[in-house]
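tool_log.txt
---
The assistant was asked to compare two proteins side by side. It first ran the structure predictor on the initial sequence, then on the second. Raw inputs and outputs are pasted verbatim so the downstream comparison step can read them without reformatting.
(1)
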Amino acid sequence: MAIYRTFIAIELDDAVRAAFERVQYRLRAEPISGFVRWVGPEAIHLTLKFLGDIDSARVPEVLSALQLACAGIAPFELAVRGAGCFPNYERPNVVWAGIVGDVKEAGRLAQRIEAECKKLGFPPEERPFSPHFTLGRVSRDAGLKQRTQLGEIVRRFDLGPVGAISADAIHLMRSELRPTGSVYTSLGSVKLG
């Protein structure tokens, strides 16, 4: 059997992806942006749980667990607002876009996914659920000065309107690492409700 690197996510529609592409274009215009590896708009998603490597034979079992997690959770709406950095603006490693809307319901869904995956033997996430969209990762070559400058740019950056996200399904995603970046494909989806 094949081994797949996997995670569970909410996918975005083409309009939101196009809006993220415009946001990244504006950020790329900043001189310091050369120290950031930007995520391709087609790869931006809301991660609910990272599973790691699984045997391909386990895909049906995981999808069944996701059906249990989604039962009784109605579709909900999210929107994008604000930009930030992890772990902070002084030493950024990740540039992200924030989420508003029914964040509480997204958190409840993530908790239910966590509980069902734990029953299958997947280790629970130690960090609290922090919903965001990763826009880029800061290069390891970036020094403290470049990181601080980038953090200041992101702190002052006006994201502008990006659009609404209708969360009506979750996807079990496969991540393939390639020299050009990660490529994501859906191994299956489960509707909410």
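(2)
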Amino acid sequence: MIVHFPVGLLISGVVFEIYGALRNDEVAETAGRYNVRFGFWCLFPVLLVGFLGMISLENTEEFKDFLSSHLTFALCTAGLFFSAMLVSRYLRQPFGKVLYFIIIGLGGICVLTTGYFGGELVHRFGVSTH
């Protein structure tokens, strides 16, 4: 259950921040920025819990491709949002803002893809979540 909180923060943050920027809605953009940043910091305990859960799995041969994809996209998600934090902090020019939105958009896609593979692990292969 710890996983779903940052997923919700990141996805809603990306949507609100991009929507707010496109519609010049400062409130939506600020709410989105807050969610993206809070979701980013919540990623670290989730990655730790996920890694600990992964190393406790046995007989992963049947679903190793899904597990590998899930892990790859989880790490890409963390890397993209880390890059977004750096860009927002150090590139204040208009190009930096465009780059930031591209990165968080890609990060949002990675979050959803990570969730897809995680859902397949649980529902298709019956990988335990507790």
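---
observation on (2): The helical segments are 4-23, 26-55, 64-90, 94-123. The mean pLDDT is 94.
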